[in-house]
Write a structure and sequence with these properties.
Shape: globular
CATH superfamily of the largest domain: Gcn5-related N-acetyltransferase (GNAT)
Low-confidence stretches: 392-406
Radius of gyration: 26 Å
Number of helices: 17
CATH class of the largest domain: Alpha Beta
Number of domains: 2
Helix content: 25-40%
Mean pLDDT: 88
CATH topology of the largest domain: Aminopeptidase
Length: 432
């Protein structure tokens, strides 16, 4: 006799019912959202599971304990194209290299929800299902995620189905229809009873700031170890009294390879012959764009950069960025992608030295490989690494000024990044 049968006999309970029948749902049209509501235990999960089985829609599954112990990028299948993985992470609000190499368990709950969404989206499904997408999230983070879901459904023409028991999130999700689950019944809410849509992005304001405003935000930028170049303009995004993002603009580089082709009037030869003053007058460089993790995925970076471009009184603004090539926010803000930078002379020399020594670039981060070299070779590598970290001309990376001239880990890490990095060149041209 099983435990359940024994308890039933002792307490005179009726036999347990069979598997409950799920409520029947249908996918919304591409680009639209269906919101599924109902109290806990009403059968929302049962209905969503049935919909996924019938339609083949991709469910955004909760991360398992095993998955939480792995790094973010390791959770994506090795056979997937890496650029597609990075673009998907950026689209869901995880455009942050510092997150990609971390264990998933170290992410905030909001970042975990975004990661689960990215894992569901990476193969380009036509329909996605999210069960209790706002679970364990505070209200502000849940509102931001709802707006992200709404934007992604529209941009990618996805049929999105999301369940929640929080009615206050529905205006931000802006569903085409709302269905309330009551056991095996799915009750459609009348269109006249749907809440008016709210776009959280429209609630942000933009204003000028000071360089001191950037200090607390530097830790969220992948180049936080390097200070930006000379800054001329700072712009802030605010949500009421809270700073939500910051953008820095400053003086651009005197010599830049892509500029020789795109802006011949400011080519290296022209600047070298005495036109540096005109370059400093007419051009600025977008140096940093940092959005608070809570507000990523809304399109806030696009709005902030667009506001900055419209309020900097110069004909041209340049930007050198790797992330801009994956997230697309620079182009949406008004920049044009006009090329990319080639490896610098210092980078080529260091790579040649590594190859001659039988080392790969990643060996710069392996102390045991470096210690095995003769002292003269280590000193030569030290000079080349320091020279690469100081270079600004070809790549446009900020210089590492000051500090001890030793082959420390931070310099080696920066050198490794510059060996592989070919920043995309973006240009904004002010219309007359």
């Amino acid at each position: 006799m099983g435990h359940l049968e024994y308890a039933g006999r002792v307490f005179g309970a009726p036999p347990p019912p069979g598997r409950p029948r799920p409520a029947l749902l249908a996918l919304p049209a591409p680009g639209q959202c269906l919101a599924v509501t109902g109290p806990s235990g009403a059968g929302k999960t049962l209905a969503l599971d049935a919909l996924a089985r019938v339609t083949g829609a991709a469910p955004a599954r909760a991360l398992t304990r095993q998955a939480l112990s792995r790094t973010v990028l390791d959770l994506f299948e090795p056979g997937l194209p890496s650029p597609a993985v990075l673009r998907t992470l950026a689209a869901t609000g995880l455009a942050d290299y510092t997150l990609w190499a971390r264990a998933a368990r170290t992410l905030s709950m909001g970042e975990r929800r975004r990661l689960e969404l990215a894992l569901a989206l990476v193969r380009g499904p036509s329909a996605v299902i999210l069960d209790e997408f706002d679970a364990h999230l505070d209200l502000a983070t849940a509102q931001a995620l709802a707006c992200t879901l709404r934007r992604l459904a529209r941009q990618r023409s996805i049929s999105l189905v999301a369940s929640t028991h929080r009615e206050e999130l529905l205006p931000y999700l802006a569903p085409a229809s709302v269905v309330e689950i009551r056991g095996p019944e799915a009750l459609a809410r009348p269109q006249t009873a749907l809440a008016l849509p709210r776009d959280l992005l429209e609630e942000f304001t933009f204003e000028r700031g000071r360089l001191a405003d950037y200090g607390p935000w530097a830790r969220w930028h992948y180049a936080s170890a390097r200070r930006p170049g000379p800054v001329t303009d700072v712009f802030l995004a605010r949500l009421r009294d809270e700073v939500a993002g910051v953008a820095l603009l400053g003086m651009t580089h005197l010599f830049l390879g892509p500029r020789n082709i795109v802006l011949p009037d400011y080519a290296s030869s022209v600047v070298a012959s005495g036109s540096a003053a005109r370059l400093n007058r007419d051009l600025r460089l977008l140096q940093r764009v940092v959005i608070h993790p809570r507000w990523r995925g809304l399109g806030l970076a696009t709005r902030l950069v667009r506001h900055a471009l419209e309020n900097v009184p110069v004909p041209f603004v340049e930007c050198l960025a790797e992330m801009g090539g994956f997230s697309g926010f620079l182009v949406r803000a008004g920049f044009e992608h006009r090329g990319r930078c080639e490896p610098s002379r210092e980078a080529r020399r260091l790579m040649q030295s590594l190859e001659r020594l039988g080392l790969c670039a990643e060996d710069l981060l392996r102390p045991e490989r470096l210690k095995a070299l003769a002292l003269a070779e280590r000193e030569r590598l030290q000079r080349q690494v320091n020279g690469l970290c100081r270079s600004r001309i070809e790549t446009g990376h900020g210089a590492l000024r000051g500090g001890a001239s030793v082959l420390d880990f931070e310099r080696r890490r920066q050198a490794l990044m510059r060996l592989h990095c070919r920043p995309e060149y973006f240009l904004y041209t002010r219309k007359p």
